[in-house]
Write a structure and sequence with these properties.
Radius of gyration of chain A: 21 Å
Largest interface: A-B, 87 and 85 residues
Order of helices and strands of chain A: HHEEHHHHHHH
Distance between the termini of chain A: 58 Å
Shape of chain A: elongated
Structural class of chain A: mainly alpha
Oligomer: homodimer
Chain lengths: 215, 215
DNA sequence: ATGCTTGGATAGTGACACTCTCCAACGAGG
DNA sequence: CCTCGTTGGAGAGTGTCACTATCCAAGCAT
């Protein structure tokens, strides 16, 4: 199919598709003549993934390119490819080392990892996973605002997410090839984030109404 | 204290504080002379909250202003104030009604709310909570990519978040005044989001290593 | 033949979160 | 009393990001 058809079937304007081609998020089409290229179903699929990552997952274009590149690293195993892809996701500001609250955040995060028995993302692992820095930054911010949270407070969150991670990966293992599995894992990691956040907000609204609700 | 001291104690530059003052995120200080104002501990506290919302919670300045305004709505009860504040948080693109996948997302979301017994955010509630639209958009995107998820698949997520919402609001109820409670609820809603996401990514990395990990 | 379409390159747009530059009014040291 | 650096306020400028609009020459369709 031509650019115009790819645009129509995906709902993305040709100008935006050209932009993604330029940025390397989409492979160039098969050149038919000097001025025309042919795109296939794989391009359409990739384009939908890109859109989902950028619009629903709110991932910057540059990060999306890295994530997609990781999916195709031939010489890594599933675990490494997935790790590389998730590693490239945005993860907010790095912990501010000049702030004493960061130290508290780091200790709390480490204590939490110990309680949960998780080996990833420890401070003494070099380099720690970006998600670990994200956790430290958030705990530090809470602490600075006067909402201290201990490893004990956070353990139930970790346990709950541990269970959900098991069901997520069960879903991933339904796919046959490692390629499909890694792509599914990335799509699920990114696209379940808004699901998780929206369900949390709805759950809190529900619980708030139950406790504080008048009328 | 003067602007310079507020800046030093908060770690935010004077230029940025002036910007927040202009944008109405911070109340103006008490005017001492025609060219000088006095700020107090309350300003410092507010400034730290603003920074946490914007930098850690990644909330746009305009949304932060609305969220903060909701905290001080005198004629609303706790439940309404919290609802208004959470309502003002960013929630991604609205569902694309021209896309048939949205219809699937909406039906799945409604079925999920039924299973969970939640009354908020139904499609037939007018207007539905923004978090409901966020959920529909995400389910639709998953569907479009060929990762269908049913209400049954999502129910464990809802149950898990229901439990966490209970512990969140237990924490909130430790504060005495409704004002403190609402502020705490907003801070916890926003700042626990990165905690949740980072723990999920770490949990998935852990589980992926357990299943796929070589070495 | 001719007029619309295509792919590619370049430049422009609008939103956003600051950040810089000025300026007159202070206020502390000499 | 008189500098002279500092302060708060206002407006314009900056850098980034995700597009988006404009050109252009080379097709293709009629």
């Amino acid at each position: 199919m031509r650019l115009a058809e790819l645009s129509e079937r995906s709902g993305v304007t040709t100008a935006t598709i050209k932009y993604y081609l330029r940025e390397g998020l989409l492979h160039p089409g098969r050149r038919v003549t000097a001025t025309q290229s042919e795109y296939d179903e794989e391009h359409l699929r990739r384009l939908r993934l890109v859109r989902a990552l950028i619009q629903v997952g709110r991932i910057p274009v540059a990060s999306a390119r890295e994530v997609l590149a990781a999916l195709q690293e031939e010489d890594l195993d599933r675990n490494e490819r997935l790790g590389t892809a998730v590693w490239a996701l945005p993860h907010g500001p790095a912990p501010d080392e000049s702030d004493p609250a960061t130290e508290v955040g780091r200790r709390t995060a480490d204590a939490l990892m110990d309680r949960l028995g998780w080996s990833y993302g420890r401070a003494y692992e070099a380099p720690p996973a970006p998600a670990y820095g994200m956790l430290v930054t958030a705990i530090a911010a809470l602490h600075r605002l006067g909402y201290p949270c201990s490893a004990e407070d956070l353990e139930p969150y970790g346990r709950a997410l541990e269970l959900l991670a098991v069901t997520d990966l069960d879903l991933v293992e339904r796919y046959r090839t490692p390629e499909e599995q890694v792509e599914a894992a990335v799509a699920l990691t990114v696209l379940y984030e808004p699901v998780l956040l929206s369900l949390r907000r709805l759950a809190e609204a529900e619980e708030s109404r139950r406790r504080f609700g008048g009328r």
